[in-house]
Structures are given as C-alpha cells and as structure tokens.
Task: structure prediction
Amino acid sequence: LQPTKKHLMVKEFVTPEQFQEYKMAGLDMGFRFVESSPLVRSSYRAEKHVNK
Result:
C-alpha cells in the first residue's frame, strides 16, 4: 500500500465494513449526505449533494 519508501508508512487498513460504519456514524450525527469509501476525497460528489 505504501507507494515508495519516501511516502508515509501505512498505519492501518480500513475495511469496507469500517467505511460503512463511518457513513452510519456521520448520518447519525445529522449529516444529510456521507460518502465513505476507500477512494473518496473531500470533494467527492460535492456538487451532486449541494444541489439537493
């Protein structure tokens, strides 16, 4: 997972199940939309959600 020795070491692998738990936690906190998966960035699908 670590691309090269110049990059930070990977501390832990987050499973898809953990990402689902993060999504549910965000929804439980009151967020209307939560995108939670290994390849999601902070702006992922932002325009889609802003327009709702």
In short: The chain has a mean pLDDT of 87. The chain is about 35% helix and 0% strand. The radius of gyration is 14 Å. Helices lie at 16-28, 46-50.
